[in-house]
Write a structure and sequence with these properties.
This protein is α/β, with parallel strands linked by helices. The chain has twelve helices and nine strands. It has a seven-stranded mixed β-sheet with strand order 5-4-3-6-7-9-8, sandwiched between helices. The protein has a two-stranded antiparallel sheet with strand order 1-2. Helix 10 links the parallel strand 4 and strand 5.
Length: 363
């Protein structure tokens, strides 16, 4: 690799090169190409910049986990269109052979996959929201275009999980480090894997009501190399006892924090959820629970808050500023609907200090 390319790569985090890094992060997370801000042509025109994009975004020989061929084709087609407009001097300017070869390869694969189902699972890489070179990532094999299938919503990572992940990564590390964590409705495992891979959790047990989803989640655990820390089990709210779900490896007498993201979807599930929360509090009276929720329906949220009140559970909303979409630098998520994180405590713990929540973190 040339020294010129090395210099370019090391400067990728400077203000001038930051649009390229953001382009890469959004591409690897498979953000809608129409929503991606492509770097200006003067930034992607230099040969070193084209080499950087090949090596960090498009070369299957170098990059282990890439988006689907059909998605990559859409992104590269627009990228090459911008590059073609930038070629002003035919003798000096050119699109690199390697970039062209990547496009030829992805075009052939995209045509083969043209009839692929929208249910196709593929690796989606989420980059942590930090402005530094080689920011840490979590890769989840999921179906990013699939809204729901067979009544299941656990086939993709939702905005509430990314919002919770952003909070934990930037402001909540002390809540996770050396702690035993239980996640409810974990889906394919983004939050649990983040805790085990980058936030130094002691043990993490992720749970969901679907055997099929838990099987896929455990594969994601292995893919991220955290199978010694993160375990999985099926948990049917209101049916499976708390004593039964610790058989996967967590310490049965210890539980420090419960997490949930986008689990307040169906009001008819709330009685079963309340049963499980009360079961948890009966065993761990001073337990704290964090639930991240996209407010799609005010009536659904009110139903949940009413259910908590009826069951004497104390609920407080954390005062966490929402980062506008145009200012996000990782774990990208929609803010079209408001997202809130709620702290839930048992009646016994209502008057105890909120351990770990300070400096105005609670409204």
């Amino acid at each position: 690799m040339s020294s010129k390319y090395n210099m370019f790569a090391s400067a990728a985090m400077t203000n001038g090169q930051w649009p390229l890094e953001m382009f890469k992060r959004k591409y690897l997370q498979m953000e809608d190409p129409h929503e991606i801000t492509f770097p200006p042509k003067e930034l992607i025109k230099p040969p070193a910049a084209q080499r950087w994009m090949v090596d960090t975004m498009f070369d299957r020989r170098r990059i282990k986990y890439l988006p689907t061929a059909r998605y990559t084709f859409r992104v590269m087609k627009k990228l090459l269109s911008i590059l073609e407009e930038a070629m002003e001097d035919p003798e000096e300017d050119e699109i690199s052979d390697d970039l062209t070869a990547c496009f030829t390869d992805v075009l052939a694969r995209a045509e083969q996959d043209e009839m692929a189902s929208i249910q196709e699972h593929c690796p989606v890489t989420y980059t942590a929201p930090v402005s530094e070179e080689n920011a840490v990532t979590v890769t989840i094999v999921e179906a990013p275009l699939l809204l729901a299938c067979g009544g299941q919503t656990g086939n993709r990572t939702w905005a509430a999980a990314l919002y919770l992940g952003t909070f934990l990564f930037n402001n909540g590390r002390h809540l996770i480090e050396n702690q035993t964590i239980l996640e409810l409705g974990s889906g394919l495992g983004f939050v649990s894997i983040l805790c085990g891979k980058h936030l130094r959790a002691k043990h993490v047990l992720m749970t969901d009501g679907s055997d099929a989803v838990m099987h896929l989640a455990q594969e994601n655990v292995a893919l991220n190399g955290v199978d010694k820390v993160v375990k999985s089990d099926v948990l049917l709210w209101g049916t499976t006892g708390v004593s039964d779900i610790f058989k996967s490896g967590c310490q049965p007498m210890q539980l420090d924090l419960v997490l949930g993201a986008d689990i307040l979807y169906e009001p008819e599930d709330f009685p079963a959820l309340m049963s499980t929360l009360k079961d948890l509090f009966a065993r761990f009276p001073h337990l704290q629970i964090l639930i991240s929720n996209v407010v799609r329906s005010e009536s659904t949220l009110e139903s949940f808050l009413d259910a908590c009140s009826t069951n004497l559970l104390h609920v407080e909303r954390l005062a966490i500023p929402t980062v506008p979409e145009e200012e996000q630098i990782g774990f990208f998520h929609s803010t079209f609907d408001p997202i809130y994180i709620y702290l839930i405590k048992s009646p016994q713990a209502q008057h105890r200090p909120d351990e770990g929540f300070h400096d105005g973190a609670i409204e």
